[in-house]
């Protein structure tokens, strides 16, 4: 349950017992089976099954008739928007969410309205939220939490850079996409800091996650630190299986928050590093809580165990089948174009209720919907392409150091080699795809159909990823695969592996240690630009290979750089130290990478 943003005190308001709860809610209209954005060439969406609901709003699975892509549609009935405060709150949610573009934030697609509803079209996260994940797994292991937490931190950094405080970070607002990545959503309680030093004074949030300064220090107000507190509750809940202050009564929860009254149960042992980070995040004084950069530098986050993709968590095939079953119940067929008047599942007559015009286009918040890229209809995209947030992060770090503002960047005392980087590669995309060897001993191939096949040589096991079609599997490389396409891909990878072993040298003077039994690092993207080849790996690192056989590997969001010279010798440095210690050769390489990234952003 989310506490209303209007007002809330430590003691929950009482409700007259003589008034039935149902009588308090007005009758809500039915959401039609087709949603039409009349301001954009009548773009239509087919409504599917209900995904969830909260308050007045309901969220549905929808399919765009033009692109056949699936999305989530949040339908807000206008009957619940009678007051100016309710309208302004919704408009603020739309405006703030639209500003945020990050791979770990649920993507905002568009917003439009009809007579009865305001619709917000969002990226679909097929695997629901971390609430369902925790119900299934009871608690997460520390490596699993470490896989999710940097994603949450990256999204939160994006929000805070845009001067936005989320104020409702919780497991229920951490959505899981089909590839297992975390996406933060629901900006209904978010607010923007307009002036430096401004403190917000609205009492809002979800009881188990509310920071103490929201509840008990309203005179002073609150700021970005409330999101850091919520991170502490999230991490504790992930590792222990329940929130740290949870009791049956809200008043008792608030009292425990006030006194920072929580313990680490003996039957759920966690590491000393995890406890230390949680204790810092849950500091009673907001000034004592770590910054996002300090969290990333904490020993808990730097213990870089890697785990396999969480197939038991994502379970996307099962999710897809469940949605298909729900569609069958609704008797909705696949659509190849816009709805027609004679469709047998067309919505029935609309209920007669009082019409409440919202007038989104002329609202005082000045939301100009013409600025929204039509991301579900590719032919009409007019906004410039945007690089991924990881590229943005590395780009920003390089800019900062080359401009001489190194003091603003953190430095790491313990510098380690990246978990993996590419040591050999062959571009065979003219026929099959891109084959490579990693420094951890894994051989892999990114095929032209966007699938990936990895080989773990010590066990002779192969691991196949087809995320577009919800497929992951592993098998013995020595046995024949029943699927002809997969058997062919296996043969290509083995042949190319043999060629690389016999003809190519490793990119660096290192000892290959193939310790990972289930590979979790692989190539996700690559490109060639300005005499260099760029690689992005699934461990959130970017590698740049230059024609003179030197290489740069950016890890920790660009804060750590591994330089491999033409003699294959390695150096690991904080990016700020490259300029401070005047490493001329590496500075020249950084200037080239900066130019490449500048060119990417201008396209």
Automatic annotation (TrEMBL):
<dbReference type="InterPro" id="IPR036947">
    <property type="entry name" value="POLO_box_dom_sf"/>
</dbReference>
<dbReference type="InterPro" id="IPR011009">
    <property type="entry name" value="Kinase-like_dom_sf"/>
</dbReference>
<dbReference type="GO" id="GO:1990023">
    <property type="term" value="C:mitotic spindle midzone"/>
</dbReference>
<dbReference type="GO" id="GO:0140429">
    <property type="term" value="P:positive regulation of mitotic sister chromatid biorientation"/>
</dbReference>
<feature type="domain" description="Protein kinase">
    <location>
        <begin position="45"/>
        <end position="301"/>
    </location>
</feature>
<protein>
    <recommendedName>
        <fullName>Serine/threonine-protein kinase</fullName>
        <ecNumber>2.7.11.21</ecNumber>
    </recommendedName>
</protein>
<dbReference type="GO" id="GO:0090306">
    <property type="term" value="P:meiotic spindle assembly"/>
</dbReference>
<dbReference type="GO" id="GO:0000776">
    <property type="term" value="C:kinetochore"/>
</dbReference>
<dbReference type="GO" id="GO:0044732">
    <property type="term" value="C:mitotic spindle pole body"/>
</dbReference>
<dbReference type="GO" id="GO:0000712">
    <property type="term" value="P:resolution of meiotic recombination intermediates"/>
</dbReference>
<dbReference type="GO" id="GO:0005524">
    <property type="term" value="F:ATP binding"/>
</dbReference>
<dbReference type="GO" id="GO:0110083">
    <property type="term" value="P:positive regulation of protein localization to cell division site involved in mitotic actomyosin contractile ring assembly"/>
</dbReference>
<dbReference type="InterPro" id="IPR033695">
    <property type="entry name" value="POLO_box_2"/>
</dbReference>
<dbReference type="GO" id="GO:0035974">
    <property type="term" value="C:meiotic spindle pole body"/>
</dbReference>
<dbReference type="GO" id="GO:0010971">
    <property type="term" value="P:positive regulation of G2/M transition of mitotic cell cycle"/>
</dbReference>
<dbReference type="GO" id="GO:0090619">
    <property type="term" value="C:meiotic spindle pole"/>
</dbReference>
<dbReference type="GO" id="GO:0035556">
    <property type="term" value="P:intracellular signal transduction"/>
</dbReference>
<feature type="binding site">
    <location>
        <position position="74"/>
    </location>
    <ligand>
        <name>ATP</name>
    </ligand>
</feature>
<dbReference type="GO" id="GO:1990813">
    <property type="term" value="P:meiotic centromeric cohesion protection in anaphase I"/>
</dbReference>
<dbReference type="GO" id="GO:0010458">
    <property type="term" value="P:exit from mitosis"/>
</dbReference>
<keyword id="KW-0677">Repeat</keyword>
<dbReference type="GO" id="GO:1904750">
    <property type="term" value="P:negative regulation of protein localization to nucleolus"/>
</dbReference>
<dbReference type="GO" id="GO:0045842">
    <property type="term" value="P:positive regulation of mitotic metaphase/anaphase transition"/>
</dbReference>
<keyword id="KW-0723">Serine/threonine-protein kinase</keyword>
<dbReference type="GO" id="GO:0004674">
    <property type="term" value="F:protein serine/threonine kinase activity"/>
</dbReference>
<comment type="similarity">
    <text>Belongs to the protein kinase superfamily. Ser/Thr protein kinase family. CDC5/Polo subfamily.</text>
</comment>
<dbReference type="InterPro" id="IPR000959">
    <property type="entry name" value="POLO_box_dom"/>
</dbReference>
<dbReference type="GO" id="GO:0051455">
    <property type="term" value="P:spindle attachment to meiosis I kinetochore"/>
</dbReference>
<dbReference type="InterPro" id="IPR008271">
    <property type="entry name" value="Ser/Thr_kinase_AS"/>
</dbReference>
<dbReference type="GO" id="GO:1902542">
    <property type="term" value="P:regulation of protein localization to mitotic spindle pole body"/>
</dbReference>
<feature type="domain" description="POLO box">
    <location>
        <begin position="522"/>
        <end position="602"/>
    </location>
</feature>
<dbReference type="GO" id="GO:0010696">
    <property type="term" value="P:positive regulation of mitotic spindle pole body separation"/>
</dbReference>
<dbReference type="GO" id="GO:0140281">
    <property type="term" value="P:positive regulation of mitotic division septum assembly"/>
</dbReference>
<dbReference type="GO" id="GO:0045793">
    <property type="term" value="P:positive regulation of cell size"/>
</dbReference>
<dbReference type="GO" id="GO:0031619">
    <property type="term" value="P:homologous chromosome orientation in meiotic metaphase I"/>
</dbReference>
<dbReference type="GO" id="GO:0051219">
    <property type="term" value="F:phosphoprotein binding"/>
</dbReference>
<dbReference type="GO" id="GO:0005935">
    <property type="term" value="C:cellular bud neck"/>
</dbReference>
<dbReference type="GO" id="GO:1903353">
    <property type="term" value="P:regulation of nucleus organization"/>
</dbReference>
<feature type="region of interest" description="Disordered">
    <location>
        <begin position="1"/>
        <end position="26"/>
    </location>
</feature>
<dbReference type="GO" id="GO:0070194">
    <property type="term" value="P:synaptonemal complex disassembly"/>
</dbReference>
<keyword id="KW-0418">Kinase</keyword>
<dbReference type="GO" id="GO:0000086">
    <property type="term" value="P:G2/M transition of mitotic cell cycle"/>
</dbReference>
